[in-house]
Design brief:
Helix content is about 0%, strand content about 35%. Strands 1, 2, 14, 16, 17, 19 and 20 form a 7-stranded mixed sheet that branches. It has a 5-stranded antiparallel sheet with strand order 3-6-11-8-9, with no helix packed on it. A 5-stranded antiparallel sheet has the order 4-5-12-7-10, with no helix packed on it. It has about 650 residues and is mainly beta.
């Protein structure tokens, strides 16, 4: 509601929509020679061409004594062929019709002899009519013909069209276009339906009358006008009926307008403490083609229609400075419509008590304190009281100590004005707790899952989400499918609290690798070797050997270390287990063929010699002699074996060599 304090004063905006009627026209005249004063050459022609009954003062299809106006009958002897008349004393055999302005006027039979037979006047407008515009039609008319008995008639109508007839133009002819019939209304060949019709019973008599009509075209470019009777059947009176017209004018209407005022019938003692009547008054309608009092009213409060309040007066009881009363006033006439607004002023003697408008606020349980008074809408008065009482004893709300709920602010009544209350709805939401960051390591090849939630420190709230999401869709980490990295746990807050997060870092442990098993054969005279070099794969360094070697390291000395299986062990780290591998060591004895020897023998002797016994040192048994002896052993027989050098060979086991 808009306020203007006069003592003080309340102002109510009143909106309305109106349709108004006008008595004035603004467009140019679109009827040619509508006063029928301008004649043609025909008016002064020699009547002799038609004999005694000349046709000069008649309107024919192809000939007219008055500029721009024609009948619908082709020119022929007058008898039995009615066609409109032109009245002008300057025209041969014509006369002036009393009471109509000027010298010229037109007349037509609406019913000749009481039958359907009648006459029609037609003209081409100066400017085609436009769809959606409003046009004002005015003329003078009477329902009689001098010297002939006629009955009053209401048969005056106007047909606007843009048709083309048999002659290629917009003028019709009874014979060519309507089978010779003089009725051209609905059901005829022309089938004309007039848009503007003199109301039934609005009789034209011998007294001249000024008539006005309104026309709103529904199509564009209607440029031809036919005036006459379009009603089927005989005359209502059963007698002849004749219409004389003059001063025909058609112009576009002016924009409509009217005056509006809204008044209050009294002064309020207090805002919210009384009622007044508001009255919307309309006057001075102008523009358009006619003036009416066709107004409609609809009152509204804050833009919403008030049910049943459709009169020009409403009783209102303002409760708040934010109330806005308005009225929509509809005013219609012809084709036009407008909308207007007006302002009503109501004097009040007391501004009244104002506790403001209700408010609301959501807090986090860790939020700062706030003054509830600042949460009230409108313009609340200071100095009120809060219920329930806040811990501060004032309007300061502390979410750490004050309970959530509805707090009522009250301004006490004064004099004639009642008190006022408003409310603030306070909501306190708990701050979320995602816990403290955590970390752990895992073995990538382990199938043991880890619940990340258990790794969070503090007291994390349940129901949060993990980012990135784990394959399990929960907090369970599976080393076989989930990657190492940082996983963030988020607990979503309710505003104005903010989300809380904590992170769990998962670090993969290095897996122990003792390499692949190995093996090696040595000669008891071989050099030392590093067993670590005998392991396959990519064994980790720093492991231990079991049994321990004499060197105390990984160096194997075949002269002192026993053959057998030596185990290499890499201890486990954190989540990953240890690993072992083995080296199988074989030590072979170096062969001994003894020392070289020689002897002599008698070729003829039959005594054999055992060559093995001739070898020096401590030769190994089981060797072979080359060349082979006849005995197949080490026995030399002088009778069969030739003298020479015999080599004794003991075959070695690799890597030892033969001796």
């Amino acid at each position: 509601m808009f306020l203007k304090f006069i003592r003080p004063t309340i102002i109510l905006l009143l909106f309305f929509s109106a349709l108004s009627h006008a008595q004035t026209t603004c467009g140019d005249e679109i009827v040619l020679n509508g006063d029928f004063e301008t004649t043609t050459d025909v008016c002064v022609s020699d009547p002799g061409m038609y004999g005694a009954r000349d046709q000069i003062s008649l309107l024919w299809f192809g000939q007219t004594p008055v500029e721009g106006w024609f009948g619908a009958e082709i020119i022929r002897p007058r008898a039995n062929f009615p066609t409109p008349d032109y009245f002008n004393r300057s025209c041969t055999n014509s006369q002036r019709v009393d009471c109509l302005a000027g010298e010229g006027s037109l007349g037509y039979w609406a019913h000749l002899g009481g039958q359907q037979q009648g006459e029609h006047i037609q003209t081409e407008l100066l400017t085609p009519l436009a769809q959606g515009k409003e046009y004002c039609i005015s003329l003078s008319a009477r329902g009689t013909r001098s010297g002939i008995e006629t009955s009053p008639t209401d048969k005056l109508a106007f047909w606007f069209h843009n048709r083309r007839f048999s002659n290629g133009g917009g003028f019709f002819e009874y014979e060519a276009d309507n089978n010779g019939l003089h009725f051209i209304g609905p059901g005829s060949n022309i089938n004309a339906t007039p848009q503007v019709v003199n109301p039934r019973g609005n009789l034209l008599t011998e007294n001249c009358r000024d008539l006005t009509f309104t026309y709103c075209p529904e199509v564009d470019n209607e440029r031809f006008l036919i005036v006459g009777n379009f009603t089927p059947g005989p005359s209502d009176s059963g007698n002849r009926e004749y219409v004389t017209i003059d001063n025909l004018s058609i112009k576009e209407s002016c924009p409509i307008d009217f005056d509006l005022a809204v008044t209050a019938d009294g002064i309020l003692d207090c805002l919210g403490g009384g009622c007044v009547d508001l009255t919307a008054s309309t006057a001075n309608q102008m523009g358009g083609c006619e003036v009416t009092d066709d107004f409609t009213f609809q009152w509204l409060l804050n833009g919403i229609p008030i049910a049943g309040e459709t009169g020009n007066t409403i009783n209102v009881c303002p409760e708040s400075t934010t109330d806005v009363y308005s009225v929509e006033v509809g005013y219609s006439a012809g084709c036009q419509a407008i909308t207007k607004t007006e302002l009503a002023v109501i004097d009040i003697s007391d501004e009244g008590n104002d506790a403001g408008e209700d408010g609301a606020m959501a807090f986090c349980n860790t939020s700062e304190t706030i003054d509830l008074f600042t949460l009230l809408g409108g313009t609340p008065d200071a100095g009120g009281t809060w219920t329930p009482v806040l811990a501060s004893g004032t309007s300061i709300f502390d979410p750490t100590v004050d309970a959530p709920g509805v707090y009522t602010y009250t301004i006490a009544g004064t004099n004639t004005c009642p008190g006022d209350t408003s409310e603030v709805n306070v909501e306190v939401n708990a701050e979320p707790e995602a816990g403290e960051d955590g970390s752990t390591s895992f073995c990538p090849t382990s199938t043991d899952t880890i619940d990340l939630f258990t790794l969070l420190g503090g007291t994390p709230d349940q129901g949060g989400t993990w980012t990135p999401a784990l394959a399990s869709g929960t907090s369970i980490f599976d080393p076989t499918v989930d990657p190492a990295g940082t996983y963030t746990y988020t607990v979503t807050a309710v505003a104005p609290c903010i989300d809380d997060t904590a992170a769990v870092v998962l670090t993969p442990d290095a897996e122990a690798d003792a390499g692949e098993d190995g093996a090696m054969a040595f000669c008891n005279t071989s050099e030392t070797i590093d067993l670590f070099t005998l392991l396959g794969g990519t064994p980790d360094a720093g492991g231990t050997w079991t049994p321990a070697l004499a060197s105390g390291t990984s160096i194997f000395d075949p002269t002192v270390d026993a053959p057998g299986v030596y185990t290499y062990t890499i201890a486990g780290t954190n989540a990953c287990p240890g690993d072992t591998s083995e080296v199988n060591v074989e030590v072979n004895a170096e062969p001994e063929a003894g020392e070289d020897a020689s002897t002599s023998f008698c070729p003829t002797s039959s005594d054999t010699i055992d060559l093995f016994t001739l070898l020096g040192g401590t030769p190994d048994q089981g060797g072979t002699w080359t060349p082979a002896l006849a005995s197949g052993t080490s026995i030399f027989d002088p009778t069969v074996d030739p003298a020479g050098t015999y080599t004794y060979t003991v075959t070695a086991v690799a890597p030892c060599i033969d001796d």
